[in-house]
User: Which sequence fits this backbone?
């Protein structure tokens, strides 16, 4: 684990020294605060609308941070050739992947903590009360969602040569799952023969990221979700993350790296 | 246990019947053999010059030793451990031909990161960083980001990271390539200093004068095959000429009239 933490530390250090990360980070934080500062006669519908916008903004920003950060890790190491002195040390390829994953995910969680803090502050000022347990549940589900996304993008980064193509494909896959993942079973039921089987297989194979989107619960101040559901969703996310990281290692472990 | 291990193992590096093949880049082309049946051993405390023209298979062999490339056949071990095991790299230091380091880190941060990888205890870590930075004369610039360094300074950071774990074996891939005469002399001095300390050095270079001064033994590779291997003095005596002429003769270079 020593090597994994050391590698994760370098990933985070690189991120906070990169200006593009700062731009996105500061922009989202500012927009969230600005939206929070607006007052529309404390109309409940408008407050809900603002909360929805803020949460959407947080989801988009963290998704961009997760995908762009994870997509560049291994390709950038190969392009800049920093991977050679690194792998010439007692570091296994599995540790490299695990370290990159840990670094990217931790960076996303740090960003998430800041964004949710701002969001919590604006919600509290509008509603004159701190958000409840559902707020913490939404934060946790979001963090698990990002873990699966980072693992998925890392797999793409060892499969595709160019980081831009990996980032684009990852965006399409993640957004595709978020929008269509929940409808695949119904679509499969309406199809016959091979097409139905393919859609059904897809339904069982993909990680159902839409399960982690509980924004509506936060926006409409619904009661907290059953902890069992949160636990099962966490386990489901951990299994997919492990599976995707395992696949990344399988692809990467015997890959020839030439100077 | 560790000290016993150090005493018993006399052969530091062993390569047996090593063959490395790559797919040809031409359409329908056959596999290209980069290294062909290489056998080589390096003993403890030896400085071995690994020579050959461009494309001879030197870097490929080093890539196998460092686990970047898988051998098609044969085996290689460092301190008796198969090179495919990451632990085989615990006691080695590697300096690549060009500087490939995290440019967003300072020299001090880079060395601290690598020291953590080598599991150097925290109390000893800072001491090691100080001593290698002093050795490569980068103490004054230790807090500057590597991206602001000159090429010579970056090469010295490379040398510092190769020495951070006080390695018993150093693998240097053309360590003086692209350096000015002063930089070359400094690198040469450091290699000689390490030699005096009893370190084993496996180093490839095109600077044959430098090889003649620094190395105990040379191995000359051409088209993936080991053509000659022996002590520098013995070869000079046998061929009655300098290493450069010996090298040219061995690889079959003929001067045009």
Assistant:
């Amino acid at each position: 684990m020593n090597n994994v933490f050391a590698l994760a530390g370098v990933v985070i250090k690189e991120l906070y020294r990169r200006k593009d990360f700062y731009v996105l980070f500061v922009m989202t934080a500012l927009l969230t605060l600005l939206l929070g500062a607006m007052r529309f006669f404390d109309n409940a519908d408008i407050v809900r609308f603002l909360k929805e916008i803020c949460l959407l903004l947080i989801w988009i920003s963290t998704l961009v941070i997760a995908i762009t950060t994870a997509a560049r890790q291994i390709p950038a190491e190969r392009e800049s050739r920093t991977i050679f002195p690194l792998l010439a040390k007692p570091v296994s390829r599995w540790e490299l992947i695990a370290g990159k994953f840990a670094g990217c995910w931790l960076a996303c969680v740090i960003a998430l903590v800041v964004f949710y803090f701002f969001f919590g502050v604006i919600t509290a000022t509008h509603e004159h009360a701190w958000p409840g347990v559902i707020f913490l549940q939404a934060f946790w589900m979001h963090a698990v969602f990002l873990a699966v996304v980072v693992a998925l993008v890392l797999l793409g980064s060892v499969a595709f040569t160019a980081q831009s193509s990996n980032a684009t494909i990852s965006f399409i896959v993640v957004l595709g799952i978020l929008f269509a993942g929940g409808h695949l079973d119904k679509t499969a039921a309406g199809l016959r023969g091979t097409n139905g089987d393919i859609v059904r297989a897809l339904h069982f194979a993909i990680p159902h990221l839409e399960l982690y989107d509980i924004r509506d619960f936060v926006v409409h101040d619904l009661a907290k979700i059953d902890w069992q559901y949160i636990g099962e969703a966490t386990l489901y996310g951990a299994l997919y993350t492990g599976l995707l990281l395992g696949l990344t290692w399988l692809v990467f472990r015997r890959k020839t790296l030439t100077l | 246990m560790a000290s016993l291990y150090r005493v018993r193992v006399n052969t530091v590096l062993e390569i047996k019947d090593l063959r490395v093949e790559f797919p040809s880049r031409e359409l329908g082309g056959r596999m290209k053999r980069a290294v062909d049946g290489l056998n080589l051993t390096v003993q403890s405390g030896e400085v071995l010059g690994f020579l050959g023209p461009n494309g001879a298979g030197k870097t490929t062999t080093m890539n196998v030793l460092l686990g970047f490339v898988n051998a098609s056949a044969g085996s290689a071990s460092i301190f008796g451990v198969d090179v495919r095991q990451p632990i085989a790299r615990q006691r080695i230091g590697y300096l690549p031909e060009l500087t490939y380091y995290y440019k967003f880190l300072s020299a001090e941060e880079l060395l601290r990161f690598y020291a953590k990888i080598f599991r150097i205890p925290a109390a000893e870590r800072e001491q090691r960083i100080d001593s290698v930075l002093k050795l490569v004369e980068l103490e004054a610039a230790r807090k500057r980001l590597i991206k602001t360094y000159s090429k010579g300074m970056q090469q010295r950071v490379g040398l510092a990271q190769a020495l951070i774990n006080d390695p018993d074996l150093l693998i240097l891939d053309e360590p003086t390539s692209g350096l000015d005469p002063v930089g070359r002399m400094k690198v040469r001095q450091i290699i000689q200093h390490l030699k005096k300390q009893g370190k084993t050095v496996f180093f490839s270079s095109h600077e044959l004068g430098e090889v003649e001064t620094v190395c105990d033994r040379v191995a000359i590779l051409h088209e993936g095959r080991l053509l000659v291997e022996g002590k520098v003095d013995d070869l000079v005596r046998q061929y009655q000429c300098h290493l450069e002429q010996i090298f040219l003769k061995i690889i079959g270079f003929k001067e045009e009239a």
